[in-house]
Amino acid sequence: MCEDGSDPGVGQALPRPAPGEAVDPVALEPVDEVEVTTLVDNVYDALLVDDERTRRADFTAGRAVAPQFEGRETAVGLVAEHGFAALVTVRRGRTTTSLLFDTGLSPDAVVTNADRLEVDLAAVQGVVLSHGHFDHAGGLAGLARRLGARRMPMVLHPRAWTRRRLAPPQHEPHELPTLSPRALDGEGFSLVERREPSLLVDGCVLITGEVDRTTEFERGMPPAHQAWTGSAWEHDPLVIDDQALVVHVRGRGLVVVTGCGHAGVVNIVRHAQRLTGVRTLHGLLGGLHLSGPAFEPVIGPTVSALTELDPSLVVPGHCTGWRAQHALAAALPAAWTQGSSGSSFRLVA
């Protein structure tokens, strides 16, 4: 950020046409298998059932002391909260690598759910932060306590540190919790800040960096979402630090994992297609940010665009909203799958 509060990089992400192939293509290595385990989501449903590509966590995931029951304990299932975190595990040949994509809202939910699912967070090779909003970064405190002195690499956009607030009409502004790079460094995270696409895990995982805004209908956050420029609060429609995680499953196509999808999920998918040269969308998982009056007009064109892309699996979560969930389920009945804390989705070459 410049001393006057302006950011010269913001203009690079303003909506603009982007015809043709990417001028800076990314050689994303295909993988044999990817498994995405939702560690934290807004919903937990213990009655969901497994299928050939989905494994669900039921009430047996976790026990707690409860004196009112015979045996003095009860089943507790998993934590659900307004946040998102996913464990992404990729396999190529005999090599398997896991990354944590976002960490949920509260300090303890992601660690609690990982323990109940018997996920070893110490085996995770790195953290990717989709953007700086607190409902995706709150679990970093619990993760740091679990890791102790170990240094954990974290990939994020340099604007993830932006001060932001919500200032809806007729209400007092509410400043959102802001990440501190100094605190994260002190807690053991090795910060890797990049605006550009990043290739991780020997070229098997793409982090998009800033996403091209090319659609006419995905216009970002409403005026109530504001950022501090260094001298004043201004409308922050872009959430320019928003980025997604992309894997290419051999012979199947791209699997895209979003945090909130603030860049617009269609923008994100098209950006991933342009960068990689892979046209097929195999799977889409994560928050699509289509909830509430400001975003519901975007549901129709989003569903139409995703229907044309014809993915095999769509697992909308977190901030997608029930109206968009219903529309997606109706338009893509074979692909749409209910998300839930503790669900694992396995896609194989």
From TrEMBL:
InterPro entries: DHPS-like_MBL-fold, Metallo-B-lactamas, Metallo-beta-lactamase_dom, RibonucZ/Hydroxyglut_hydro
Segments of this protein annotated with the region Disordered: 1-23
Domain of life: Bacteria
Gene3D superfamilies documented for this protein: Ribonuclease Z/Hydroxyacylglutathione hydrolase-like
GO molecular function, one term: transferase activity
Metallo-beta-lactamase domain segment(s): 94-178
Pfam families: Lactamase_B (PF00753)
CDD domains: DHPS-like_MBL-fold (cd07713)
Protein name in UniProt: 7, 8-dihydropterin-6-yl-methyl-4-(Beta-D-ribofuranosyl)aminobenzene 5'-phosphate synthase
Originating organism: Actinomycetospora cinnamomea
